[in-house]
Write a structure and sequence with these properties.
single chain; Arrestin_domain-protein; ubiquitin protein ligase binding; Arrestin-like_C; ubiquitin-like ligase-substrate adaptor activity
Amino acid sequence: MGKVQLFEIRLSESRVVYSPGEPLAGTVTVRLSGSLQYRAIKVSCVGCCGVSNKINDTAWTVEEQYFNSTLSLADKGVLPAGEHSFPFQFLLPASAPTSFEGPFGKVLHQVKAVIDTPRFSKDYKCNKIFYILCPLNLNDIPDIEQPNTMSVTKKFNYKLVKSGNVILTATSDLKGYIVGQAIQLRTDIENKSGRDTGPVVASLLQKVAYKSKRWIYDLRTIAEVEGSGVKAWKHAEWKEQILVPALPQSILQGCSLIHIDYYIQVSLKSPEVSVTLPIYIGNIAVNRVPLSPSRSIQHIPSAVVPSAPPEEEEAAGGYHPMDNVSIPTKSHSQQQPFSYAPGLSFQEIRVDSEQTGSPNHPTLCLSTGATVPYYAEGNVVPVPTASSLILPPEYSTWGYPYEAPPSYEQSCSNANSSISNGN
């Protein structure tokens, strides 16, 4: 850098995360080996969102700006050799959206400084990224505390001439969750056929929509749980839970170019049938109230009145009563623990400060699973990628476990053991 040995921005108290409406203060530090002539020294605070049609492309096709303020720290003059500090302060707008970074776009907030030198001389520039977190209070969403239920009936053929149907019903205990919370899921499957179904799979899905010249949708499987299939003429129940890993919140208030949605999808592999429950991921948990009997999703056994089978089945095998059974869980697929940037520590997880990496990178860097981008228009073939979504520092300080949560059967077994030991 020639005469300029150091040119950097330091935020007060080494903060990197701010809330909308907060003051942001810091200093611009310049260290010179000799005198430097300049026309101006300026610092700017900028917030914007950019979206591209290509993965990890730095050339944005669409951009929107949220704020852009500039302060003049020094007018035309000469800086002598040595170290100089220029304090500054900005007031972040109350409408600034939460920081976000994905493969097709980002919501970026940063402080930029420039030493404007005389003509024919090189200007000096530096920047400092900071993060804004506008917490999403799930209690502000109507009916968020209500169970989420959806059911679908699928008719299918098998053995050439036979037919049957399957009824798939999925219910979650809430419509919104926070990081570290378990999604309590119950699935009912009525197999009204003489053919066994394939495995049942419950997935937590993320869909990020980027508004460029056309909408680009990035679909990711965040977590997945698989249960066994259902035998012929059985009414099965499957109770499971999915742990919510560190994820960006559902709503980027104030941002019109990036939309984030989450879903719970429960599906059968054979016959192909699925139900999808939209949910919210927020920062402030739902205030639970005791559920009345009518609102509780706890399964109350009731008499099952089977309907008559299709004529083909009746002719072949007569009447088939349906038995109630429980589905065992076969496998869990949850996210791995967090990956941290160097030199930072949190309440429950500490990090080796000797790890290599750039201090400009965000603290939490988490890939949220396999992704398949697809487009609203055009003949584009989806290509799976492994691009990461980047979370701001302190987006969550919750210590994510190294193992998947216990299944419903394991939880009941542990509870029974505790009761037995107590007696």
